Prior knowledge:
By secondary structure, the protein is an alpha+beta fold. It is 31% helix and 39% strand. The chain is built from 4 helices and 6 strands; from the N terminus they run ααββαββββα. The protein has helices at residues 5-22, 25-30, 50-62, 139-146; strands at 38-40, 47-48, 66-79, 82-94, 106-120, 123-133. A hairpin with a 2-residue loop joins β3 (66-79) and β4. The chain is globular and about 50 Å long.
Amino acid sequence: MSRTDIEAVDEVNTAFYEAMERGDFDALSALWLEDEISCVHPGWPVLSGRGEVLRSYALIMSHTDYIQFFLTDTKVAVIGDTALVTCTENILSGGPAEEGGALGPLVGQLVVATNVFRRTSEGWRLWSHHGSPVLTESDEDEEEDSA
């Protein structure tokens, strides 16, 4: 049985996050298109072009000792040679190591992401990534709203 386009795109999307978790810059780079690409990390300006985008990932990888993505609400749509993936990135990351060599405190973050892929002769490749933080109300805000 051959893989469907949706399965193939889902597999490449997963490979993108797994490369980030491993800090595998070469694998991550290979998943992006060679031509014009774009990326928006949460809180960052739009990055355009392969050089800017890949530099941003190299910077993130060099300053992150530990990162793990738990993807939820993943939806894949394919129309022709373009695919759209939306998902929630449940991120657990560790800051720089403390003096004793132990990992810094772990921090959780929720980001909603849109990943756009294009079909190439080598398979599906990432064209654009856009991540936006999920801003949730604190318990205090909810109490004030119900008062």
